[in-house]
Amino acid sequence: MTPEPLVEQVRDLLSRVIDSHPGVPAVESLHDALAALDQPLVIAIAGKVKAGKSTLLNALIGEELAPTDASECTKLVTWYQDGVTYRVTLFARDGASEAVPYHRDAGALEVDLGAHTVDDVDRLVVEWPSASLRTATLVDTPGLGSLTAEVSARTERFFGRDAERPATADAVLYLMRHLHSDDVDFLEAFRDEIGVASPANAIAVLSRADELSAGRLDGMEAAAQIADRYRRDPKVRRLCQTVVPVAGLVAQAGVTMTEDKYRALARLAEAAAPDVDALVLSVDRFAYAESTVDITREERAALLAALGLFGVRLALTLVRDGTVCTATELARELVARSGIVELREVLAAGLTARRDVLKARSGLRALQTALRDPALAGDADAAFELERIVAGAHEFAEISLLDACRTGAAPFRENELDEVERLLGASGTSVRERLGLPVDARADEVQDALRDVAGKWRTRAESPLSSRELVDAAQVLVRTCEGLATAPAV
Q1: Is the pLDDT score of 278 beyond 60?
Q2: Of 377, 383, 420, 381, which Cα lies nearest the Cα of 400?
Q3: Most CB contacts within 10 A, which of 81, 124, 186, 479?
Q4: pLDDT of residue 73
Q5: In angstroms, how far is CA 122 from the centroid of its own chain?
Q6: What digits encode the pLDDT tens for the residues 299-318?
């Protein structure tokens, strides 16, 4: 008999607990957890103040929605989700909710909180018809380490770090400019609490990557080297799937490029090279220096705000050498060189492809939090069923083994780790990605590779020379191969 899918097991358990404890306050949060199983993945964007969270969110959505200045709304947790209409809803901390007015003359949304103060608000929910938001809801969180304690506390509450409520994010994009102990502490705290600790629900972003080399044109190459070093750092490997360098401002400029910005850049590119080169030596020169170049200070300020110094230099180079001749071509090049394409691919392969298992984990985490309440302390059946699901679900066994590989606790040889991690879905969850085959590999090639890989790990599992730990790990890999053999894509 085919086992019930993991997400359906969690759905049944949550429904049973809700029905068994009507009117119990601790159970109320489970209604939201149950409904969330049918909704898109919730990916929160977190990081320290000025890490570039809102800018990255805009680049991922493909239009400028989230405010990036120090307005009141940047101090609030704000959800951006696909909708059938355009609407902003304010949810107060006392549980009330209401639609609130907003306007958008050019650029980001400006929301009118009305009689509410920032301290009254739990969250804002922006519904915006968008293809980019159909597979994942994005949540912009206030900066950690803010000088105002309450601003950081809102992010802490959202991630469930104050025990007031369970975290509502299924996964996190954590932005960092350099790896600090605070970054490690946050990612450590976001690891699951239900016995399935894993880097599977976190991706680190080396944000504002273009600034790491003072705006030089080779800045993204330098950032890629730094990101690669972090990927191989044992502390980072055990806390997140990977580290992706992204120049968020350049990505946002690409997806929001306008004809007037392109024309201003084209005029710059046509001016005498020595005069322009003198302008782009520094931010201050470009913003304030006197110049005979046919572009006003206001236009320069707008370009600097939209692109940053690295983006201006890059755009000028692309226009000068004839790589781009239109605003559309420039937009395409900026997006391609910003790192945002690679991040979207990582999100698709590493998070949205694991939607069901991440949703199931969130549901179980909410239940675990509810079961700590004294009113539910006697529900031994629910606690037992939660433990049974965690222990018996192969999806959890896979990510636990992946975690062991990342922390050095797995019983494999060093030269086997890359193969094992790939088979466990670290580089993508499709059958061909797990087997390391090209996307156009024929079905018979896939079956042959599956047979070889399964045979290899079955032999290791049955060998009398294998340790108990290796037998258990090899059996997980054999089970993975058996599941892949029945996947529709095969």
Answers
A1: yes
A2: 420
A3: 186
A4: 72
A5: 22
A6: 999 999 999 999 999 999 99
Which residues 6+ apart lie within 8 Å of 374 measured at CB?
none
Closest by CA to 215, choosing from 294, 284, 297, is 284
User: What gap in Å lies between CA 354 and CA 429, rounded to an integer?
Assistant: 7
> What is the Cα–Cα distance from 149 to 465, expressed in whole angstroms?
56
> For the chain, which domains are there?
41-250+341-352 (3.40.50.300), 257-326 (no CATH), 410-485 (1.10.287)
**DSSP states of 188-246 as a string?**
HHHS-SSS---GGGEEEEETTGGGGGTT-TTHHHHHHHHHHHHHT-HHHHTT-S-EEE-
Amino acid at 172: V
Full strand arrangement of the beta sheet holding 78-81? 97-99, 87-92, 121-127, 78-81, 136-140, 41-47, 171-176, 202-206, 243-245
Q: What is the pLDDT of residues 347-369, one digit of tens each?
A: 998 889 889 999 999 999 899 88
DSSP of 318-344: HHHTTS--SHHHHHHHHHHHHTHHHHH
Residues 73, 364: Cα–Cα separation, whole Å: 31
- What's residue 322's pLDDT? 93
Alpha-carbon torsion, ordered 232, 235, 236, 239, to 10 deg: 140
Beta carbons within 8 Å of 472's beta carbon, 6+ residues apart: none
Read off the pLDDT band of 161 (50, 70, 90): low
Name the E strands within 388-447: none
Comparing C-alpha atoms, which of 449, 456, 442 is closest to residue 484? 449
pTM: 0.88
Alpha-carbon distance of 393 to 389, in angstroms, equals 6
